[in-house]
Known about the structure:
The chain is α+β, with helices and mostly antiparallel strands. Helices cover 49% and strands 10% of the residues. FE2/S2 (inorganic) cluster (FES) binds next to helix 5.
Amino acid sequence: MDDVVLTSEDKAALEELRSQLDRYEKSTANLIPILQMIQEKVKFLPPAAIKMVAGFLEIPSSQVYGVATFYNQFKFNPPGKNPIKVCLGTACHVRAGDIILENFERKLGIREGETTEDREFSIDRVACVGCCALAPVAIMGKTVHGHMAPSKVEGLVMRVQIEREKAERERQKNESGQN
Ligand code: FES
């Protein structure tokens, strides 16, 4: 997890949080509330945040990390702008959900639980999302893709990339029109 590259926004948010730590008493009872505050602000717990909390509470980083990893609510990678959730509940699993997950991982060059360097995509496995009749299911952003197939992975990722390029071209056109 040491290779998470922080954006300037992440750094600014952490800096701001540093000053808010003094609101808390230096007690390990406050560890989870502090981690929750950081996650709410930064959306994940980067290594710098773990070190900061350890320093504040005067406990080893490994203890902070150990507690944080115990709870599913804490993330150690930044969320992608297009979060991908692949359902591996029973109905999806028996219909090749794991191969769909593997194809996303291969296509994007990351593992589940990780985020691409440009922060465009992140991949997570999830348990049943409640629409087993559509199995296997993957969710990209807010769109549920039912009856998924490993062969559809490439097209879905490409569609997002094409839309992003289109938006970027529009933005540049608008900017040059304003000058
Ligand atoms: S198991 Fe995937 S939607 Fe139910």
